[in-house]
Specification:
By secondary structure, the protein is α/β, with parallel strands linked by helices. The chain contains 14 helices and 15 strands. A 7-stranded mixed beta sheet has the order 4-3-2-5-10-15-14, with helices on both faces. The structure holds S-adenosylmethionine.
Amino acid sequence: MNALGKILKSRIDNEGPLSLHDYMQIALTHPEYGYYSAQDPFGKTGDFITAPEISQMFGELIGLWAVDVWAKLGAPKKFNLVELGPGNGTLMADALHSAKLAPEFIDAMQLHLVETSTRLKTKQAEKLKKFDAHWHDEMPDLRDAALILIANEFFDALPIHQYMYKSGDWYERLVSCKDNRFDYALSSKPTPVNAEVELVKDGDIFETCPEADNLVGKISNILARAGGAALIIDYGAMTGQIGDSFQAMRRHGFSDPLTAPGEADLTAHVKFGHFVKIAKTANIRIDGPTTQGRFLERLGIEARCHLLVRNASKAQRRKLMADLRRLTSAEEMGTLFKTLALSHNMLAPPEGFGN
Ligand SMILES: C[S@@+](CC[C@H](N)C(=O)[O-])C[C@H]1O[C@@H](n2cnc3c(N)ncnc32)[C@H](O)[C@@H]1O
C-alpha cells in the first residue's frame, strides 16, 4: 500500500468507510500525495493528454473566442479573465498569444488562475511569466468588472457522490478497507435522493457533484450581476445523471480507481444537463451544450489548421492534420467532449454555437 493508501486506511479504521466523494477528493488533492500535487499528469509521458496539450490551435481559438466576448461587452477598459484548473498553463499561454492581436484586450485583463496544486502553479507561473497573474485556491467572488471564464477539463476532476438503487431506495456508495485493499460498500441507511427519473432498477448508480453545482451557481450569479461569459469544456453527456462514470486513467489507459490512490487521475463525467438547470435559475443566457468538434469547427479550426500547414514541414503537416482529427472527429474527442457557454442575457450570443 502506498503512502496515501495508508493515510486513507487509517482514516477508515478510525471513522468507518469514506464516502466516494471524500476518497476521490483526497486522492486528487491531498497536499503531499494527491494526484495533482505529486504526479506529472499531462502529455505523452504522463497519464492523459488534454486538448491544449494536443495542439496550439485549441488555446488559440479559445483566446479569439474570449476577445470576441470582450468586443461584444463593448471593449471595457477592465475585465476579469479567469481560468479554472489551468494545468500546465498551456491553454492560457496559447489563448493570450492569439489574443495579442487585440493589445487593448491584454491591457484590460485582470488574469486570475484557480489552482490547488502548488506544483502546477509553479508551471503556470513559468509559462505565463509575461503576464501579471493572480492565483486562487477557489473561484473568487469577482464582481468589480465583467467576467470571461474558461474551464477545460476542470469540472471532471471535482469529487462526486454516488448512490446505488436497491429495493426502492438509494444508498450512498462508500469506500471501505479490508486486508489492506480498498473496496466499495454501501451506507447502512438510505439517503433521500432527488434523481428525477422514473425507470430505475436495482444496481443503478446516480451521481451528484455538489462542488460543481455550487460553482456553476456562483459563476452564473457573477455573470448575471457583472456581465460577461463562461466557457465550460469537458467530457460528459448532454443530459442525465444515471450511470457509473467514476474512472481512473494511468499511462493513457484505464485502471482501477481503488488501487494505488494518488497515482492515477480520477474523474467522473460532467452533468451538462444539470448545469443548464442550475444556470437557468440565475436568468442568464445558455448556449449549448454542443460537441467540442462542432464548436471548434464553428470557430474556424480548419482554416487555422490550413494556415499553419502552409508553412509546415511534411512531418509537421502530418501532425497538424492528425491533431485536427483528434480534436474534432467523432471517433476521438469531437463528440465525447461538450462545450457549454453561459453569458449575461443582454450580451450578443457567444461564437461557436451556431446562432
Ligand atoms: C485535468 S486538469 C486540466 C488542465 C487544463 N485545463 C488542460 O486543459 O490541460 C485539471 C486541473 O484542475 C486542477 N484542479 C483539480 N481540482 C481542483 C480544485 N478542486 N480546485 C482548483 N483546481 C483544481 C488540477 O490541479 C489541474 O490543473
